[in-house]
Amino acid sequence: MSTVSAERQAQAAKQSRQLGTLLRETSSEIVLFVGAIVMMMPFLWMLSTALKTPAEILTWPPRLIPQEATLANFVTVFTTAPFGLWLLNSLILAVVSTLGILLTSSVAGYVLAKFSFPGRAALFTIILATAIVPFEVYMIPLYLAARDLGVINTLPGILLPFVIMSFGIFFIRQNVIASIPDELIEAGRIDGASELWIFGRVVMPLLTGPLSALGIFAFMQAWNQFVWPLLVANSKALYTAEVGLALFQTGFTINFGAVSAGSVISVLPILTVFIILRKQIINGVALSGLKG
Amino acid sequence: MTSPITRKRWFFAYAALAPILAIYLFVRIIPIGRTFLMSFRNWDLIALNKPFIGMANYLELLKDPSFQTSLVNTTVIAFGIVILSVPAALLVAVLLSRPRKLSAFYETAYFLPVVTSMVPATLAWKWILDADLGPLNQFIGFFGMSPKAWLIEPGLAIFSIILLSAWKVLGYNMIIFLVGIRNIPATYYEAATIDGATNLQRFRYITLPQLRPILLFVSVITVIQSYNVYTQVYVLASDAQGAPGYVVRVLVYDMIENGFRFFRMGYASAEAMVLLLIVMTLTLLQFAFLRERT
């Protein structure tokens, strides 16, 4: 009699535990899902506005799904503004900046990791210390330097601050220390290889992983720049997609649809890269973030 | 005595570093030094004479209502972003720390704003927050609330900037928390389960204490980054007449206006030094915490 009730009790407890787990899992899933939709909302709204007709954009109440979707805004943004040129400027800036950062980071990172020479520690400290200083702090003197150099309102001027990256140097240095044994470099030297050859043919091929991670970051960083290009580019033809969009939307006649279409297009490259390389990017963030 | 081989290597090291160091000096080190020096001068872009005036710029800042407003607004925004984004990021990270069917989708959805550039992201929010046509007013209307001028009323405009910035940084903070949670030894949780701890207890007594240093790290880094807030304000607050920034004035905005509109670059440099001082203090605090941990 008592054993039966104990069994029954145990079974009831087990059932309620299972029910509790199910409830908890479901509510967790709901929280995550609703949160994810909220996070995506600005993107969805941007896309929705881009696909709406001018009349529908001005209709209340607003709808997420356009009643009659149109691609006209995507045409307008290229015809009423030199948006194609702005995208090209952004692309040039991002590509050259990425190449510059990869080159300077790999050379400096390697030398700082594998060569001992007087002043090395001081140099590395300076690079780390200046990394803390926000760009906005030294932007005014940098502007004056760019002016003295005669590169205001030119693409090289916009590019100027973005060919080196303190974090890049630090990141490559850590990777060289962790993954390239001294013996490998010594072996090259004993074989009579030049330092340049060792760097190009032995070290660089071993750094493809970290270099591609750094490359993704450099590209995104350059593509997303705003303040500096805004200060340096004075003529419309030199705007980047970011600057062009920001100034385009302050015009007297705001074309919501066209600005949205422009936003969608300017977001697309980074979005595509992110969706393809999501794992690597997130791992990279985790790594760099925790190292500060 | 250094051998010829050693010297040859030194030569290579210096030769390789020289051009990089030159760029570094030109775009980073010298400008930082010049900000400091200019902050003690009456540095007008047009005037030929740029006299040394000691602390006068700093003293003027103390009495400048525009600077004070900017400093207060920026501080409110920076801490607001932390308050809004850190707990939410922690919650999402805890829920995501266990593998789920939709994990990839969730990770993408929460992280996407981090990689999106600020201008289009802000533009998207601008329409969501639009007083006349925005879906947010429609949404709060379902709950019987009257429409609000999110971008025009100063308090609400600050809130809007906090909201959008928190949305943007949440995914980054979430990833850092996720790594932290995954680094907590599984044995801790197993032991707690054997002892019959509930999920909430496990969070309260294992996850939270274990994450404390990371929680601090994330909060401080979020504050530091938020002190540079500019793009959001520029895009959100600019109206059809193209007169941005008057609703919500922030430090970088005030600085750029002083420097590039009124050409008072010495004065703007003093503001830049204040920004640097704030960031440095927070960074040093961060280091102190990290040292305490190890």
Structure in words:
The complex is a heterodimer of chains A (292) and B (294). Chain A is an all-alpha fold and 292 residues long. Chain A folds into 2 domains: 2-57; 72-291, Orthogonal Bundle (MetI-like fold). Chain A is built from 15 helices and no strands. In chain A, α4 (83-114) runs antiparallel to α11 and α13 (241-248) packs antiparallel against α14. Chain A is flat. The mean pLDDT of chain A is 88. Helix content of chain B is 75%, strand content 0%. Chain B has one domain (64-293): MetI-like fold, CATH 1.10.3720.10. Chain B is globular and about 75 Å long. In chain B, α5 packs parallel to α10 (231-237), α7 crosses α9 (199-226) and α9 runs antiparallel to α12 (265-293). Chain B is mainly alpha-helical. Chain B has helices spanning 4-38, 56-63, 65-96, 103-115, 118-128, 135-142, 154-182, 186-194, 199-226, 231-237, 251-261, 265-293. The interface between A and B is large, with 94 and 98 residues.
SSE layout:
The complex is a heterodimer of chains A (292) and B (294).
Chain A: H1 2-51, H2 54-57, H3 72-80, H4 83-114, H5 120-132, H6 135-149, H7 155-159, H8 166-179, H9 182-190, H10 195-206, H11 208-223, H12 227-232, H13 241-248, H14 256-276, H15 278-291
Helix pairs in contact in A: 1-14, 3-14, 4-8, 4-11, 4-13, 5-8, 9-10, 13-14
Chain B: H1 4-38, H2 56-63, H3 65-96, H4 103-115, H5 118-128, H6 135-142, H7 154-182, H8 186-194, H9 199-226, H10 231-237, H11 251-261, H12 265-293
Helix pairs in contact in B: 3-7, 3-9, 3-11, 4-7, 5-10, 7-9, 7-10, 9-12, 11-12
Offer a few descriptive terms:
heterodimer; A: 292 residues; mainly alpha; MetI-like fold; 2 domains; 15 helices; flat; B: 294 residues; 75% helix; 0% strand
Largest interface: pair, residues per side: A-B, 94 and 98 residues
Mean pLDDT of chain A: 88
CATH class of the largest domain in chain A: Mainly Alpha
Can you summarize the main beta sheet of chain B? none
* Rg over C-alpha atoms of chain B, rounded to the nearest angstrom: 24 Å
CATH fold descriptor of chain B: MetI-like fold
Contiguous low-pLDDT stretches of chain B (5 residues minimum) are 240-245
- Assembly state: heterodimer
CATH superfamily of the largest domain in chain A: MetI-like
Return the CATH topology of the largest domain in chain A. MetI-like fold
**E-strand count of chain A:** 0
Q: Specify the CATH homologous superfamily of chain B.
A: MetI-like
Helix-strand pattern of chain B: HHHHHHHHHHHH
Tell me the number of structural domains of chain A: 2
Shape of chain A: flat
Order of helices and strands of chain A: HHHHHHHHHHHHHHH
Overall CATH architecture of the largest domain in chain A: Orthogonal Bundle
- Alpha-carbon Rg of chain A, integer: 27 Å
Q: Find the count of extended strands of chain B (DSSP E, 2+ residues).
A: 0
Helix content percent band of chain B: over 70%
What is the terminal-to-terminal distance of chain A? 65 Å
